[in-house]
## 1
Amino acid sequence: MADERASPESKIYFPQSLAELLQVHRRDPDALIWAGGTFILSQRTGRFAELPATVVSLQDVEELERISRTERYLELGAMVPLRQIIRLGPQNVPRALYDALRHIGPPAVAGLATLGGNLAVAGRIMTAIPVLTLLDARAELRRQGGARWLPVGRVHRADGSVDLQPYEIITRIRVPLYPWTAQVFRRFGSELSPDSDPLTFCGLARTSNRILEELRIVGSAGHPRLLRNKSMEAELVGRRLPLPDREVRQAIETYGEPGHELSSIQRDRFRRLARWFLLSLR
Ligand SMILES: Cc1cc2nc3c(=O)[nH]c(=O)nc-3n(C[C@H](O)[C@H](O)[C@H](O)COP(=O)(O)OP(=O)(O)OC[C@H]3O[C@@H](n4cnc5c(N)ncnc54)[C@H](O)[C@@H]3O)c2cc1C
């Protein structure tokens, strides 16, 4: 049975296993899922957080804290604290993801914050999502009696809501391990403060014998729509390196199209980073 501790305002459940968690969540699909609590607490307006009638804490669910690695994948339980993932080091975690996680909050936050929580913030694309999207990571969603895998880039719908069915929980994130030869992550501002013109940039490339064999570039201003141009990426694949400055300029121009709700600062930063990344490829 769940360890049920009552507070004057909210009932808080502490399920002890995944099966119990899914059962409790099925009983009360409107309950607030509490992972590390760092985002939830960052949104409070007064001294204390205003919690709904029922809260389900994931802290005692051991199945959500597992990490495994094969030659092809790194699998991270939704409740593994970011600090623990960072401690695996860049030899075990794709470099761009490792760098992205090191940007999330001060050390006290990284000790509590989880990857599941980073994916599940409604209305905002948090720091890890653009990188996980480029890496083709998938999230496992579980409910009582069923499971499905969703590409991380599709966890948020176009309107920013999270594509979780009632009773579903993010249980683990599977990150393919691919031999990228160039991985770059940069971040300006913070998704927590839209006034800071936040911009997350990630570039991935595989090169061999001075030929560009694979290329992926993404930018995010925290909105549901990521800045990515797959046809431009495909056009540059197969080219000899270094890329001529003229071709890079033309490629960057394709990011000028409207419809991405970027400020001029965000767009300018993104273009400069994309240009620098493309010119640096060898
Ligand atoms: C000082 C500070 C700085 C920060 N800086 C950054 C930053 O730079 N970049 C950034 O991305 N974030 C930042 N954050 C926000 C936050 O720390 C991270 O986004 C973190 O990864 C959230 O994880 P959590 O476990 O604390 O989530 P929680 O706060 O517990 O939950 C976040 C949301 O996800 C839902 N949820 C959590 N886990 C699951 C699950 N397994 N299945 C389904 N739903 C779930 C919760 O119900 C809630 O809606 C910062 C926070 C603070 C306090």
Note: DSSP finds ten helices and twelve strands in the chain.
## 2
Amino acid sequence: MIKSIKLTNFRSHKDLTADFENNTAIIGKNAAGKTNILEAIYYSFITKSFRSTQSSLINRDSDFMKINLDFGTDKTDSMEYRIKQSGKYTSRTITLNGVNKPASGIIGLQPIVIFVPDDVRIITDGPSFRRNLINSIIIQTSKDYLRALNVFQKILNQRNRLLYSLKNRLTTSRDQLFVYNLQMSEPISVIYKYRDDLIDFMNKNISAKYSMISGSPDKVHLDYLNSLPKDKEDILSSLEAHTDADISAGFTIKGPHKDELIVSLNGFSSRDNLSRGENRSLSLAIKLTEIDYIDLKTGSPPLLLLDDVLSELDSDRQKHLLEQSKKQQTIITSTEIDSSIKGYKVIEI
Ligand SMILES: Nc1ncnc2c1ncn2[C@@H]1O[C@H](COP(=O)(O)OP(=O)(O)OP(=O)(O)O)[C@@H](O)[C@H]1O
Ligand SMILES: [Mg+2]
């Protein structure tokens, strides 16, 4: 549970302190800085913003920013982020209870599910939105996955640099590619194992969530299209078999960084013509299932951040979402106080 936050030069907030209760509403006019507060909370535990790069988090008139956060269930832990900009370079330090930590030591400490008006893009936009969603869920529930993803990403970058050099004849030595293929196949198999587990869970539970929202017995299905096989040895042979094509392209064509997730409603892929309302309900159903997955895997329900989403939902959908939020700490933003946030602590900014 988050107890309080202090922002120094975080975007529009030069100096802001807020204390949270189990249910808290942040109320303010457009551009008052409501989303900025949720972004600071999200950033603190995911170590990435949901809307931009790190350097844009620093107040425009400053060259550094700081976030201090108190959280924990019984005793209080405190965390501090400092980001400093010197010319082109951005440096960041994170401390937990006074001890320096890498990002990987922070992710998962307080699992979070955020709802933003843009969530519909999970359905309507390109596959990278769906892969990012999948990653953001699983990194919070498994250190194993986080490690595999980091290792994969690092080797992928090295492999792509070499492929680029080979394509452009900056080098002719391709022996190292086999080493990368070998090093990659293990983390890729781990990534696939966890993604399978999440998709399985979603397929078992998402239709019920969707039907609750739509009020009719609908069927939602997710299809994860893996561009490489799932078994470690098969991954290696497939990478080997694709090496020439990768060199011609100058980058790694296949892998977990390229896979697609197809969402279908009653047998129709969302890439065909679902209505705006159906796409919205699908994205909401995915997020609601995400809450249950994190709850199951971590043993406690995640913190919910709802950014201005209530106003976009009709009263039935509002009710379902707020029903979910009773169990766990929930922080919402809105431009006005209305009956849906009865019982919430109100912070006006
Ligand atoms: N790096 C920055 N330095 C200073 N101000 C910033 C920075 N980044 C964003 N802002 C400003 O912060 C202000 C508040 O943004 P925020 O998105 O939090 O508003 P909001 O209260 O959520 O508004 P809305 O109701 O429209 O969603 C905006 O005016 C934006 O221009
Ligand atoms: Mg906002």
Note: The helical segments are 34-46, 121-124, 127-138, 143-167, 175-214, 232-249, 276-298, 315-324.
## 3
Amino acid sequence: MKERRIGVLGAGSMGAAIMRGLLTARYVKPEALCASDVSSDRLSKLKDELQIVTTNSNQELVRFADVVVLAVKPQTVVSVLSEIGDAWQKDTLVLSILAGVSTATLEASLPTVVRVIRAMPNTAAVVLESATAVTRGTRAAADDIATALTLFGCIGKAVEVPESMMDAVTGLSGSGPAFVLLAIEAMADGAVRVGMPRAMALELAAQTFAGTARLLLQSGEHPAVLKDRVTSPAGTTIAGLMELEAAGVRHAFAKAVARAAERAGQLGRGPRPDERTGD
Ligand SMILES: NC(=O)c1ccc[n+]([C@@H]2O[C@H](COP(=O)([O-])OP(=O)(O)OC[C@H]3O[C@@H](n4cnc5c(N)ncnc54)[C@H](OP(=O)(O)O)[C@@H]3O)[C@@H](O)[C@H]2O)c1
């Protein structure tokens, strides 16, 4: 069987992270992986690091690849797709990671022979710990979802969701890293307040988040069960938890996710991708 060739269109921080993940997992050989970008300097560094194929031509990239990961900024997608024109091969699968750009919008800008899957990874892709949701366009088949789940599984955890849930995904796992970082910073501040050096406080706080998240994922238990297990009567943990509840932290986190999801919906209904100024 012919080896599948992957193209990554836009070799910025996400594109590069995905390529590193694919090579680390041996999902694809370097000679079957191609990146295109406007920056020759960026491409030449990636070629040196990963020994992949590179090109400045997006048309050349789509002729090379069976699966194209679309990883440019949402506001450039219209010009990128119009520049590619009809250079697409029949049966190409496009995996778009463009925040806020629907499968319908992409399908309307692509030839009907091209299938589309939309994915929402997060910034932890850089350390191969992304939480990614994927959703299928109308032309994509079950096989295509399987391909997307395996491919994004190379950069962390990947799940399939209906497209109607993509705003919730954006609020939770897309914006979530910023919420977690704020919590880590705040907990470290508390330790600094009682005398711990800042660098040590940040390291212990970050490891506490990473370790607790792994414990939760591996145990499969409800967070409240694990929390109750470390909360002894009249102890230190219940004293801290009472402070968090009094400050409404539980409500604040839930509201932050819901607000971010609502904002994602507004942006999705708002300016066209070529008019957007950010994520
Ligand atoms: N970063 C995240 O955490 C995250 C999470 C989820 C989804 N996403 C999505 O992932 C996509 C990429 O984000 P990113 O953070 O990786 O952005 P980025 O670092 O700016 O990467 C985009 C790359 O595409 C290049 N580019 C611009 N115009 C191009 C063209 N016409 N042809 C080929 N390449 C072109 C850019 O070059 P220049 O810099 O020289 O313009 C840059 O290297 C975005 O659509 C974003 O919504 C990102």
Note: The longest strand covers residues 130-136.
